[in-house]
Amino acid sequence: MNKVYFGFLFLGMLLISSCTSYESLLSYNESAIPGTPQSINNFKPLRIKSHDLLSIQISSVDGDAIQAFQLSTGGESGSAGHLYLVNSDGFIEFPTLGSIAVKGLEIETAKDTIQALLSPYFTQKPIVQVKLDNFTVNVHGEVGGGGTFRINNDRLTVIEAVIMAGDFTNYSRRDSVLIIRENENIREFAYVNFNSADIFNSPYFYLQQNDVIYIRPNKSKVNTVRDPASRFLPWVSTLVSMAALLFSITR
């Protein structure tokens, strides 16, 4: 009886060893998460880059003055809004004001800069809203539903991006999620580890415009997409071993 018991125990271990481990499906390594609040030191506000698209809206009670800053007719009275492309030199071409340097500025700083340039033309300081219109991220690989996602605010984490893409599957490599980022003429490659609480302190935890996130499949997924013959070879080998072991312990 002991032989049979240990034989089945050994076979169970063989089967378990071929499956995805429990630890690999966990995120953040909860046992290592601090028990006290932490300061957020790795968030950096988005900065405007060449070829960004800015949505700029101006509002004022001075309806006559605002007409000088409208690029098209038919807008609401007392407001003017338009999309502005940041050229390769980092400037936008604004009606009446001409070229405005915005490359490298944070969104709030760009808003204050434009507002200061507009103020002399108005009896009261106009209200200016600036939004990065091309804040998108691309998520693909081993997720529920990848794609390109447009972000409505200026703060997005890699966790939120993965959730928007349908979250991880049972075959996702959580320990090495690739992030591809372009800064002017430099392309950066970095990995974040969802199995570790250190992800919260990563400089890539907060995403930037046009970041690409790729989630690789684990070995279990690779085995499921092999050609039909080789796909079942490991199982055939295991079954043969099981049969041989059962034969030897029941003799």
Poorly predicted runs are 5-10
| Corresponding CATH architecture of the largest domain | Roll
Give the DSSP E fraction (strand runs of 2 or more residues). 15-25%
**Main β-sheet: number of strands, strand sense, barrel status?**
5 strands, mixed
Helix run count = 7
Instruction: Please provide the count of β strands.
Output: 10
Sketch the topology as an H/E string, one letter per element: HEHEEEHEEEHEEEHHH
Q: What name goes with the CATH superfamily of the largest domain?
A: Outer membrane lipoprotein wza domain like
Envelope shape: elongated
Radius of gyration: 28 Å
Distance between termini? 12 Å
Mean pLDDT: 83
Look up the CATH topology of the largest domain.
Outer membrane lipoprotein wza fold like
Oligomer: single chain
- Sheet/helix structural class: alpha+beta
Spatial arrangement of strands, main beta sheet:
7-6-10-8-9
Provide the domain count: 3
By CATH reckoning, the class of the largest domain would read: Alpha Beta
Any overview of this molecule?
- This protein has 251 residues and is of the alpha+beta class.
- It folds into three domains: 2-20 and 222-249; 23-44 and 135-217, Outer membrane lipoprotein wza fold like, CATH 3.10.560; 53-132, wza like domain (wza like fold), CATH 3.30.1950.
- The chain is 26% helix and 22% strand.
- The protein has seven helices and ten strands.
- The chain has helices at residues 2-17, 63-66, 107-118, 158-164, 219-224, 228-231, 233-249, and strands at residues 53-59, 79-85, 91-94, 98-101, 127-132, 136-141, 147-150, 177-183, 186-192, 212-215.
- The strands form three sheets. It has a five-stranded mixed sheet, covered by helices on one side.
- Strand 6 (136-141) and strand 7 (147-150) form a beta hairpin.
- The chain is elongated and about 100 Å long.
- Residues 5-10 have low confidence and may be disordered.
